[in-house]
Write a structure and sequence with these properties.
The chain is 11% helix and 41% strand. The chain has 413 residues and is mainly β.
């Protein structure tokens, strides 16, 4: 009897030991795979889950420990386009373009804190990107803003416009702006509207709705299919997630919408930015409003129809809007608030492949600076941004000046 009990105890102990060894081996294998995924370069198809986005011998051991004051500083010509501090107004959401021999900039201009009743879109032009004209209104007065008791308030009885970017389409120069109730983000009447520049009369004319229940982040860009693509947030995007619109070829209103699954669960996705990679796959970056302190990234290998689950990268972020562009020489530029502690400074990062960035430069700081937009023209980069959400400013930078800068190694602690 005793031998039988002892045999059973030995048997169960052996099974438990074997199971433990199996679990340890399984966990070790999973962790090894995860580490390998982190170490190997990302790829839109073969390795979309890699978090690697920022690399270089200059980096400290943790990307959250970057000393931004030690980054190389980019020289440039600086100009304030609009300043509403004296009237306690708001200037935000700038966007740049070059059309018909002039530089153009638009932004949201309104009363008090951003996106209240009465906010409109303004614009200015420049012959050189440094000296700018007096600001003028691009959009009309939004519904309800003419009522004194609603102007400057948060209310579902009054509306606001938000600047959404310039768009050069089929020879026409368009400006996009969203319109919705100003109670929160966003109202159920949300729609994306288009305005066309009339060169003869030197004025902007409203031409209608581009898409219902949509606010983009920046203007549409072309993908490999010849279609246009832009991001879409619906009025309930915090629950349903971010989507991408493709189309815009047959007409201004011809679009299909495709969701990015995980943008409402894996993170609280906000203000997405995307670009076309050298192999024509797509990469999208997302601000995370859950406060992780990092950018998230997703890939599409089928022209924006489906997207990989967004992955938290090792690229730091202050939970703010960012902007990028692909240079004529094939490199990629990203302007962002990389300091996870605050929106200071704005930095400019460079990548050879649009996936891994290996250089980061100090652009402007020493104060609250955010919501940039960057474009390239005539051997220069132009970066528009806001200070304290009350000024619209532009920096003009020679690309050759950036290329002459050298990264300075930081202590690896």
């Amino acid at each position: 009897m005793r031998n039988d009990i002892l045999s059973r105890l030995i048997y169960y102990a052996f099974r438990k030991y074997t199971l433990t060894l199996f679990l340890v081996a399984f966990v070790f294998q999973v962790n090894s795979q995860n580490r390998q995924s982190q170490l190997t370069p990302p790829h839109p198809v073969s390795n979309p889950s890699s978090p690697l986005m920022l690399a270089g011998d200059w980096l400290p051991g943790e990307t959250h420990k970057i000393d931004y004051d030690k980054l190389p500083r980019i020289p440039g010509s600086h100009m304030v386009v609009s300043d509403v501090r004296h009237k306690m107004g708001v200037n935000q959401h700038s966007d740049l373009d070059y059309y018909d021999g002039r530089y153009w900039i638009m932004w949201s201009d309104g009363p008090g804190i951003e996106d209240r009743v009465g906010q409109r879109v303004k614009y200015a032009t420049s012959p050189d990107g440094v000296l700018w004209s007096e600001p003028q209104y691009l959009t009309p007065v939004p519904p309800g803003a003419e009522r004194a008791n609603l102007f400057g308030t948060r209310s579902d009885k009054g509306f606001r416009y938000i600047a959404r970017g310039f768009w050069q389409r089929d020879g026409e120069f368009l400006a996009l702006a969203s319109l919705d109730e100003a109670a929160g983000f966003f109202g159920p009447s949300l729609e994306l509207r288009a305005f066309r520049y009339n060169k003869t009369w030197d004025k902007w004319e409203e031409i209608g709705v581009v898409h219902d229940n949509a606010i983009n982040n920046f203007a549409p860009k072309k993908i490999a299919t010849g279609e246009w693509m832009m991001s879409r947030r619906k009025y309930d995007y915090t629950k349903t997630g971010v989507e991408f619109l493709t189309g815009g070829v047959k007409s201004l209103t011809d679009w299909q919408s495709f969701p990015v699954f995980g943008t409402a669960s894996e993170l609280a996705a906000e203000e997405p930015y995307w670009w076309v990679l050298p192999d024509n796959n797509l990469a999208a970056l997302f601000r995370d409003n859950k406060g992780s302190g990092y950018l998230f990234r997703s890939f599409s290998a089928d022209n924006g129809r489906t997207w990989s689950t967004p992955v938290r990268t090792n690229f730091p972020d202050a939970r703010s809007k960012f902007s990028g562009t692909r240079l004529k020489d094939g490199r990629y530029v990203l302007v962002s608030n990389a300091n996870p502690k605050k929106r200071d400074p704005l930095v400019l990062s460079i990548s050879d492949d649009g996936i891994i960035f290996n250089k980061m430069y100090y652009l402007v700081g020493g104060r609250h600076v955010d919501y940039p937009h960057v474009m390239e023209h005539d051997g220069h980069l132009f970066v528009a941004f806001a200070t304290g959400k009350q000024t619209i400013e532009v920096i003009k930078i020679r690309l050759s000046d950036i290329d002459s800068l050298k990264m300075i190694p930081q202590n690896k602690k």
